[in-house]
Structure formats: structure tokens, C-alpha cells
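User: Fold this; C-alpha cells only.

Assistant: Input:
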Amino acid sequence: MIKYLSALPVSTKAAGLFMLGIFCFSIMDTFSKLASQEYHSLQVVWGRYFFQAVLTVLILGPHLKRLFKTRYLKLQILRSVFLFGGTAGFYTAIKFMTLAAATAVFEAAPLFITVLAYFILKEHVGIRRWIAVCIGMLGALIIIGPSWDAVSWIALLPLFAGLCFASYAIATRFLGSEENPLTAFVYTGMFGTLISSLIVPFVWDTPDLWGLSLMFAMGAFGGIGHYFMVRSLSTGEASFLAPFGYVSLVFNAGWGFLVFAEIPTLPVLIGALIIVGSGLFIWMIERRLKP
């Protein structure tokens, strides 16, 4: 098996690792939704970060002092703030929404990246990409629309989470290429643990063995997923890997059906197709314009 994997093209291995990471995240999301049925969303966020931090210390302990060294401390903290906001927003959303609907709205993140790249990075964005962004936002509104009466502002949380993730991605672009990817991994995990630990006493409900098991699984699959993502992005181009992120819609819809008996509604299916189509259109334009 190892010999077979080593013989694969670099791009194929990168795509495989990327999708393995997405698959781990989908399992993490499923455990998160299970945990959120019994515990406050902020405690679920704490469990996800705390147990990832525990595993990080156990695995990377001897190297942590070196990994904490960075020339971009403020930027690392800013990235961590955005990722924490996205995590908290998404976990709160899936407490009230189906996994498929929340994930579909969250997938507007690549569209947000295009908008932020224009205003913050001053990148050129042509009329076709602006049209694709507007159409993608329409897809998100189609999904949110039927949910609004039922859960009010909760329906906007996946959109907020997508915006936070897009901001996290833009902040990441400012990092020097020589920065160790594991440094970013350690900072986001430890920052999330610190902030959630300060908040969680206000919503604390002592978890039973089942609750602890769910939170441990969230931290484990979250950490493994991030490891796969780091490995894939260290060998494959981000622009090549971006479209593979949409498999999260398939994974989360599948887990939603198998674990929670959730059946995607017609607005969710239509909105998801519009968002994915818009994102792929932008990706194709960027690939074509890339020198």
C-alpha cells in the first residue's frame, strides 16, 4: 500500500489528503451536533479545542517551544480569532439547523474570499467574478429563506462562520512562506482553548462519560483533519485543491441522513447547487488567469 501511494502523482496525493481532512471534519461536525443536543454550544466549542490541545501537547510536546516562535504574532492571533469565531458560529448553527443546510450556507466562504481579496488585498476582480459572487449569495439566501421563520437569526450563523473562515484565509495569505504550517496549527488550537476556557464556566454543565467521549472524538478528528490539511497544502496548490472542499456538502448531508434522519429540502439542494456552481466558476476563472 505504501509503495502504491508513493507512486501516485503529487497532485493526486494532495487531493486525497485534502479530502481525508474534509472527511475528518465532517465526522467532527457530526459529533458536535450530537454534543450540542445536550450541552451549550460554547461548551461544545471548548471540548473541540481543549481535547485537540491535549493531543497536540502529547504529540508535539517536545517541539512546542520551537513551534511557538513566530515573526507574525499579531497575525497569528488575528487568524485564531477568526477561526474561533467561525467555529463558534457554525457549532451554534448546527444545533438548530440540519448539517446539510448549515454546510451549504457555510460553503459561501470562497465567495467571501473573493470579496475580501478585492477590498483588503487589492486584487483585481473582474465583472464575471462579481456576478458569480452575487449569484452565490443568492443561493445562500435561498437556503436561509425557509429557515428564517423557524430559527430567526440562527439561520445567518453559517454565513457568519463562512465570513470568519474567509477572513482567516485572507489573514493566512499575509504570513511569510517560510512560516512553519505547524506553528499556525498550534496557535489556532491553543488560542481557541484559552478563549473557550475563559467563557465556558458561564455555561458549564458537567459532562457525563458520553459527553466527554463526544468531545474527545471532536478534538481527535479535528486534529487529524487539520494534520491532513497541512500535509495536503504543503504539497498541492491551494487553487487546485479548493474545489475538493465542496465534498463536505456530500459528507455532511450523508451523516445528517444516517445519524439524524435529516433529508435535504428542495431549497437546500437548489441553493447548494448555486453556491457550488458559483464557487467553481470563480475557481475556473482564477485558474485561467493564473500565469
